User: Fold these one by one.
Assistant:
Number 1:
Amino acid sequence: MQINRRNLAVSALAVGLLSALPAVAGSADEMAVARNLEAFRTAQIAADAKAFDALCAPELSYSHSDGRVEDKATFIANATAGKSKVLSLDYKDPTIRVVGTTAIVRFHWLGEAQSVADGKKTSTNLHILMNWQKQGDTWKLLSRGSTKL
């Protein structure tokens, strides 16, 4: 096979996408949770209310590192309000453990955002714990907690 720029770009993109997903042992449920985790990260970057609505359980309890706790409606409203823009967001070293209809997900969050009002940039370095619940045949985010590092 002859390597050209297009083949190289496609290969680089594929490697990048695969490396964004956590190293998972490979069960179908673990892979489904991994896909939802990446979809959630992407929704955070895009401030995508429709994606959040699809990914989050109606009973969502979303805890921030400053102690605020939000239900699903409040989380989505605040995450998509347009007060800040995500410049970068990385979920480092994710682990997924499926126990029955529950998945325990942990990762190291590294992010940078910029305030729309004043342009001020802030960095976040957190440890995240998410609990995903299988509802029917779909995994939904049930709860999330974070701790500043």
Note: DSSP finds four helices and six strands in the chain.
Number 2:
Amino acid sequence: MEELLGFAVTVIIISVSGVMSPGPLFVANIFYGVKGGASAGLKMSFGHTVVELPLIIFLGFSVLSLETFPQFRIIIAVLGSIGLFVFAGIQIKSVFKSKSQLVNQTKYGPFLGGILFSALNPFFIIWWLTIGFKLISDSLVLWSFWGIAILFVCHIWMDYTWLTSTAYLSKRSSSFLSNKNYRFFIIGISILLIYFGITFIAEAFLKPL
């Protein structure tokens, strides 16, 4: 029991570096949370889980490393950047639509957004291939493949708590936004997404693999 508790504490502390990082998933969650509140954050979490759980299982059954596939980082970065640019363009375009159209556009967005901004987020993938890979290795040593389940439970609740709570807070804050300010808010969020897209490409091509 002491060993399990120690591992759980380690996972929670290390996971903070990934869960609470201000990346594109967080930015998109704030955007959807303005309209959908906590339920939007919950849907984002479900979408995130669709990507994260298979990735953890895959890494648990493999010996995959960044050194084995040196071009992996560039491929993910380029795909992720394209996704961010397209999403940002759609949101900027939506600024010129009516308020009802904006609501309809995001009705089913959070779940798919959770999948998109996880699967095409190079920082998320690289985190699991580096920091997270060490946790996976430790869990396998301690409890074989049952360790994967233990690791996942210790980590995933933080994603749900973080995304749901921040989406809820963004919903509460949206009451202070007029229609005009809301449109500026959307443009600001979109600019952040473009920034992350540029950063992804810069990180991939300017830093050594």
Note: Residues 42 and 161 are 9 Å apart (CA to CA).
Number 3:
Amino acid sequence: MTSRDEFVENLKTSIDEWNTQIGEMETKMNAASADAQAKYAEQIAEASKFRAEAQAKLAEAMKTSQDAWESYRTSAEAAAKDISEGFRKAWDRFS
């Protein structure tokens, strides 16, 4: 069972990692040919969508009181897992 604080810290860590990956992809995109830039832009857009969803879920979790966390925890953890998996699939598809 994950505490709210653990969930928040784990999600913050994931978002930081995704920010780094997106930044690396932007650097590659800027150095790529025009055709490749379009593919990088697509990957960045998809990954950014998942990052935004994670940021929204993080904001929700941070607003949740410790008392309310138990009823919210299962759906928050499932959503975070889905977001993480979506980001990973988007990343793998273009890497």
Note: The radius of gyration is 15 Å.
